[in-house]
Amino acid sequence: MKQFTLLFFSMLILASCNNNKKSEHSFNKYINTGESNGCWINTNTLKEGPAFSGIISAKLDSTVEWGLGFRDSFANIGNEIPKKITANAMAMKETDLDDAVLVVSIDRKDKNLFWQGADIKGFTPNAKEWSKVSVQYNLPKDLTPSDNITVFIWNKDKHQLYVDDFEVLFE
Fold first, then answer.
1. Which of 45, 101, 105, 171 sits between 20 and 30 A of 86, alpha carbons compared?
2. What is the pTM assigned to this prediction?
3. Listed residue (103, 89, 85) closest to 156, CA to CA
4. What structural domains and CATH numbers belong to the chain?
5. Cβ 46 vs Cβ 35: under 8 Å
6. Of 141, 66, 152, 147, nearest to 104 (Cα)?
7. How far apart are CA 112 and CA 148, in angstroms?
């Protein structure tokens, strides 16, 4: 049963990230509930263990600075360049010490155009409890289809943290 569940969710995520057909809508939503494929990066952090939903979450610790994330070009995201991004995840820290950041970064070739980060500690008041982390940003107006967007967890102090149900919504 566990293998069937993993296979089902893997196929679901693969379809959401590797879909070359652009949406008829001006927005797209990408969800990772603990599977690795397509537009998801740093999937080596996905492990069985504490999870908000299912049995897999991204585990960040003293050896992992760059956590689970999303990366794609705007050309693959929709019919038009989005105006806004919302990123959500469920997070659980092991201790009260955490300086992890939910980052949204946009690059054009080797130049960074946009970088915003929200400290996770503002969203996770208690250790060993799952809390929703959510950020929303208006995007710059001069973006091009070839620009790349990356949304990820930066574990800058390398404390133990679990991340699950990571989603990125473009509007």
1. 45
2. 0.81
3. 103
4. 2-170 (2.60.120.260)
5. yes
6. 152
7. 10
